[in-house]
Amino acid sequence: FGVQDNDPEVQRVINRIQPFENVRQATEMAREIGYKSVNFDLIYGLPLQTMQRMEQTIKQSISLKPDRIAFYSYAHVPWTSRGQRLFDEKDLPTAEEKMALYQLGKQLFIESGYNDIGMDHFALNDDDLYIAMKEGRLHRNFMGYTTQHSAVIIGLGVSSISSTGDAFAQNSKTIHDYYELVNAGNLPVQKGYFLSDEDIRFGRYILDISCKGKTSYLAEDIDIINEYCLPQLKKLEEDNLLVLKDNGLELTPLGRNFVRNVCSAFDLYLHRNKADKEKRIFSNAV
User: Fold this and answer.
1) What is the C-alpha to C-alpha distance for residues 101 and 124, in angstroms, rounded to an integer?
2) Whole-angstrom Cα distance, residue 221 to residue 12?
3) CA–CA gap between residue 174 and residue 214 (Å, rounded)
4) pLDDT of res. 285
5) Rounded Cα distance, 206 and 225, in Å
6) Which of 151, 115, 154, 120 is nearest to 133 (CA)?
7) Which of 49, 78, 174, 253 could tie 84 with a disulfide, CB 3.0–4.6 Å?
8) What are the angstrom distances between the C-alpha of 222 and each of 161, 227, 229?
9) Mean pLDDT along residues 13-39
10) Which of the residue ranges 46-50, 110-114, 143-147, 233-237 would you say has the lowest mean pLDDT?
């Protein structure tokens, strides 16, 4: 369930009115009809969020005992998301305040019996996600952490992403274009990309870091890593986020809070397209 935040003022400003009682009813109904695992998506860093409001949202959510909680960082990208232009950026928490919101959430989850799975996710002891992490079977796809290692993911609906392992494609981002293509008997795909062997190998490094907190390099990639990745990795090591090994790296406990920053070091497109680095595409990591 995409809860995001339970505070009425926060819901109003992000135009997502969803009373907590509705969440309670939906959760109870899901369990009554047989769902074995219920996940809540919460977001920190939203406009008008405060420590008090975040604590209230988390305590209300925990009271329903969801089996998993995804605690996502709000991505502020008004240049691509028109809805984010409806509020003033001064209403957003600062980077320091945003990190404090995350640390508060993490503390409350762990105190309530949830385990830190890694980037964004928390799960109870008897949930399959936690068991998979303990057994080294954890996987991650476009939607987040999962226990399923399917090579094929089929995205249904507006803007959803499909993957075949060596290629991915995204559906049209507007209702109009999506239905126009579907009604004409066509796949509603707007754009896609075929992965090279190099893409697949470096994707594996990112997956290992995300799921296992460490990775080892292949000999054929050492020169590329030394040229593009190592300068950033050394800076991250200086910040005590990771430890560099002879042929790989391992995250520190502090580094597990900055998995995205470490993974970005292996984004070759980010390194090679320096001419476009002034162009805003992605949100800030914090």
Assistant:
1) 21
2) 49
3) 38
4) 57
5) 13
6) 115
7) 78
8) 31, 9, 10
9) 94
10) 143-147
